[in-house]
Amino acid sequence: MNSTLMDLKILLPFQIFAEKKDVSRIVAETREGSVGLLPHRLDCVAALEPGILTYEIGEEGETYVAVDEGILVKTGQNVLVSVRNAIVGTDLSQLREAVESEFLAVDETEEKIRSVMAKLETGLIRRLAEFQHG
Q: Is 73 a member of any domain?
């Protein structure tokens, strides 16, 4: 292993999506904006937003991966990305559309479900309180 390069592993909930060696550069989207990783960067942890993760390997050049929300952890030369879903591709506009249609749509659905659940819980608590005082 070349100590001046990184090893990247992208994990999904039930499988390893990708394992890449000799990665020279990684760019990911976080809540605070884009973050770039070079091999000698200090160790870090970042919460990832749905977006495009880019990594570069020597002569292969840049590879683009649409990723859902998750977490990125850099320890030494190892970079671990754990996300709910990922799609690899070469066309950035298609990947950006995938992020918007698949990953952000899921977030909206989950938000609606949370809202309905909160209303149900509030109603249940109110009824229990009425029952106890009735």
A: yes
Summarize pLDDT for 55-100 with one digit per residue, the tens.
999 888 899 999 989 999 999 999 999 999 898 887 777 787 877 7
Domain-embedded: residue 1: no
Residue 35 belongs to what domain range? 6-133
Are 36 and 47 in contact, with CB atoms under 8 Å apart? no
Which residues are CB-neighbours of 16 under 8 A, at least 6 positions away?
9, 10
* Widest distance between CA atoms in the chain: 75
Residue with tokens 């973050």: 35
Q: Which CATH number characterizes residue 119's domain?
A: 2.60.15.10
Tokens of 104: 């952000």
Report how many domains make up the chain.
1
Closest CA relative to residue 25, chosen from 70, 63, 67, 73: 63
From the number of C-beta atoms within 10 Å of its C-beta (0-12, 13-18, 19+), residue 70 rates as buried
Examine residue 99 and state whether it is found in any structural domain, yes or no.
Answer: yes
